[in-house]
Amino acid sequence: MAAARGAALAREKLAQAKADAARRGQLPRTEPRRRPGGQRRDSGDPQLFGRAIRDLLADRGWEQPAAIGGVFGRWREIVGSGLAEHTRPESFADGEVIVTADSTAWATQVRLLASTLVKRLNEELGDGTVKQVKVRGPVGGPARPEGGLRVRGSRGPRDTYG
């Protein structure tokens, strides 16, 4: 009984507030607010998750870093499984992608494929995003012995170590 009276009282107060607003010329909106892009959406309305993420990335200026991260995460499907087994992207800055190869042979292969790789990455990221691919070979090289034992004299013509 008390709930029915409370609901009736609430409806009565709402009607009174609407009438007061109408007298002042402040009628409530009948159309939803429009966003600058022409989309109808009130700020409190629910929206699709993907759209919310895109809006957040655009508002914060994170679109390009997110796209780069996506490419790095999908490296295998972008460059192919054979190349991806022996290479990995390290960084992206100022239009330059640095790729590390696990051997000098694969580093040479990536250098030969650099222009194709730039085209493929720009297909994913947008034209002109990647300008150059730099390749690094494997970290470290053959271990040099340490200590006082050395061969005296100059290196010979067939000496390929070092």
UniProtKB/TrEMBL annotation:
Biased composition (Basic and acidic residues): 10-23, 30-44
A Pfam family hit: DciA
Record's protein name: UPF0232 protein
Location of region: Disordered: 1-48, 133-162
Source organism of the structure: Sphaerimonospora thailandensis
InterPro entries noted in UniProt: DciA-like
